[in-house]
Amino acid sequence: MKRLLAIACLAGATLLAACSTTGQHEASPADAVFQARTMYVAAVLEPAAAYAQLPACPQPSGIVCHDPKVVEQLQQADHVAETALDAAEKFVREHPTLDASSALDAAQAAIGAAQKIALSFGVK
After folding, report:
1. CB 15 within 8 A of CB 31
2. pTM higher than 0.70, yes or no?
3. What does the longest C-alpha to C-alpha distance in the chain come to?
4. What is the DSSP letter of 121?
């Protein structure tokens, strides 16, 4: 849970820093990885972190709570997505002139799977 919160905070700070840049240009592979990571944080990581901060179930009637098994599945999905995003980022850094579409596709697939898992549990 602390990892989810730390990543969400770091991503938020990164997003704010990115907003300070100006000018328009065609997205590079590095930009595409950054955009994928930013989308992942907003669509999956922040809602998952908010869910994990709720008190653990069971709680008295009417109190919203989190299921620890759901948090565990969200953490597993996060690990897969972060690994794919890190691999894509490493590829574009180490091979800036090569086609990074396979690495980006793998990252997008992992993000999509994590989002699907989150939504299946109503985490949004």
Report:
1. no
2. yes
3. 57
4. T
pLDDT over 90 (residue 16)? no
CB count within 10 Å of CB 24 equals 5
Question: 120: which residues sit within 8 A by CB, 6+ positions away?
Answer: none
Residue 13 has a pLDDT of 44
Residue span of the structural domain in which 9 resides: 2-120
Whole-angstrom distance, CA of residue 89 vs CA of residue 66: 32
Span 60-93, pLDDT tens digits: 888 899 999 999 999 999 999 999 999 999 999 9
Q: What is the mean pLDDT of the chain?
A: 85
Between the CA of residue 103 and those of 58, 99, 112, 117, what are the distances in Å?
41, 9, 14, 21
- Helical packing angle, 2-19 and 46-53, nearest 10°: 140
How many structural domains compose the chain? 1
